[in-house]
Amino acid sequence: QVQLVESGGGLVQAGGSLRLSCTASGRTFASAAMGWFRQSPGKERTFVAAINWSGENTYYAGSVKGRFTISRDNAKNTVYLQMGSLNPDDTAVYYCAADLALYSGPSADMGVYDYWGQGTQVTVSS
After folding, report:
1. Angstrom distance (rounded) from CA 32 to CA 25
2. CA–CA distance from 23 to each of 38, 51, 61, 80, 94 (Å)?
3. pLDDT over 70 for what percent of the chain?
C-alpha cells in the first residue's frame, strides 16, 4: 500500500509561482515513476508532468513545458512540481500519482499509475 499526500497548493496571482510537493509512504517510492495530473471543474483529468525513478528522465505536457519543472528527492520520498508563469488556465486540482512498475519511464498515460493522492487546489487569479 502506498499513500500519496500533496501539499503546496493555494491562491496565486497570474505570473506568480508555486511549488507543489507530494510525499509518499512505503519503500517502493525510489523505484517508482511519478506523475502530476490536474483537473478543472467540468473537465477531464489531464497529464501535466512525469519523472522516472532516478529523476534523469522527465516528460511534460506541451501547455506547461518551459514553465513547470518536475523533480524528486528519493531520500525524502517526495516529488515536486515547480510552477512558474502561472495563468488562470492553470487553475485546477493537482494530483500526484505513482507507477509502481519497477524502474519504468515517465508516462502521460493515467492507466499506468497505481496510486493517486487526494489532490491540492491551485487557483490562479487574473
Report:
1. 12
2. 17, 14, 22, 9, 14
3. 100
pLDDT of residue 103: 87
Are 20 and 122 contacting, i.e. CB atoms less than 8 angstroms apart?
yes
The Cα diameter of the chain in Å comes to: 42
Match 499506468 to its residue by C-alpha cell. Answer: 112
**β-pairing verdict for 58-60 and 10-13:** unpaired
Cell representation of residue 50: 512525469
Beta carbons of 104 and 33 less than 8 angstroms apart = yes
Mean local confidence (pLDDT), 79-106:
96
CA 68, 72, 73: angle at the middle one, nearest 5?
A: 145
C-alpha cell at position 58: 522527465
The 4-7 sheet, strands edge to edge: 4-7, 18-24, 78-83, 68-73
State the pLDDT at residue 23.
97
Mean pLDDT over 1-9 rounds to 94
Residue 94 CA to residue 29 CA, distance in Å, equals 19
Name 46's bridge partners.
Answer: 38
